[in-house]
Design goal:
ten-stranded parallel β-sheet; alpha/beta
Length: 300
């Protein structure tokens, strides 16, 4: 990550082209299927019950409503449908409902991903039986900086959930957030930890902090766009076979910054107006940007 910027991006672009078609971008859509009321104290998250961020807690959505959202996402061009629930860990009775959602989304011909918090081995196995393709569980930041962001769940607990997911035969979606007050060494530490897992995640979301009033990080300084591109490039170089996804924070990025991210090896985005509870660029805006850059949707 310390290379001159142009050298770093050039190297990342070379790696990208060796393993992917650089013109193709995988499109995912993310839906909050259970919002708010989370007992974790993640400093960035408006869904935490520790903060007054204006997010009202809700019950788990009905299966039919989720399938309708997935169908609309598919028709808008998404090939993967991701479902997120604000839990520390799911109860088994709720997991049965989530599994029905997974089965319904797969029946639409879409890839499936869920993020539900910590999992036990048997729970991961149950999700695999339902046909789940990906499980998202981010490390968020480096091991050294983690305690500044979260105190209610340890780094090792996150690693244990990733191990349960991998042992169950589910592909791993795991990345982090930058712009939370960490330094360059912490960003490098996050990427090094991800790349050093027993197997690199198949999907690596790179998020820029979305500052939400009421959360602990509401006044954090925004990350410099060049520094953000450096993180994307480092992820591409160290995890050449992974999808590197531009995730939260794109609403505040210029088209030029996003173009640099694609040049540096990003090849996936979230499509749709919201990411759980925070804003995301409108689909029409993304379509215009992809067209301007000569990029096309990658449908598995």
């Amino acid at each position: 990550m310390d290379l001159p910027f142009t050298d770093l991006v050039f190297r990342a672009a070379e790696v990208h082209r060796a393993h992917f078609d650089p013109k193709r971008v995988q499109i995912s859509t993310l839906l909050s299927i259970k919002t708010g009321g989370c007992p974790e104290d993640c400093a960035y998250c408006p869904q935490s019950s520790s903060y007054e961020a204006g997010v009202q807690a809700s019950k788990l959505m009905a299966v039919e409503a989720v399938i309708a959202e997935a169908r609309a996402a598919r028709d808008a061009g998404a090939s993967r449908f991701c479902m997120g629930a604000a839990w520390r860990s799911p109860k088994d009775r709720d997991l049965d409902t989530v599994c029905a959602m997974v089965e319904g989304v797969r029946a639409l011909g879409m890839e499936t991903c869920v993020t539900l918090g910590m999992l036990t081995g048997p729970q991961a196995g149950r999700l695999r039986e339902s046909g789940l393709d990906y499980y998202n569980h981010n490390l968020d930041t480096s091991p050294e900086y983690y305690g500044e962001i979260i105190t209610t769940r340890t780094y090792q607990e996150r690693l244990d959930t990733l191990a349960h997911v991998r042992d169950a035969g589910i592909a791993v979606c795991c990345g982090g957030i930058v712009g939370m007050g960490e330094d360059a060494a912490d960003r490098a530490g996050l990427i090094a930890t991800l790349a050093s897992l027993p197997k690199a995640p198949e999907s690596v979301p790179i998020n820029a902090l979305v500052r939400v009033e009421g959360t602990k990080l509401a006044k954090a300084a925004p990350i410099d766009a060049i520094d953000f591109v450096r993180v994307v490039a480092a992820a591409r170089i160290t995890m050449p076979h992974s999808y590197v996804r531009l995730s939260a924070g794109r609403e505040a990025m210029s088209d030029e910054a996003q173009a640099l991210c694609f040049l540096a090896g990003a090849n996936s985005i979230f499509y749709g107006p919201r990411l759980l509870t925070t804003p995301n660029p409108e689909a029409a805006s993304d379509a215009r940007l992809l067209a301007r850059l000569g990029l096309v949707s990658d449908t598995p």
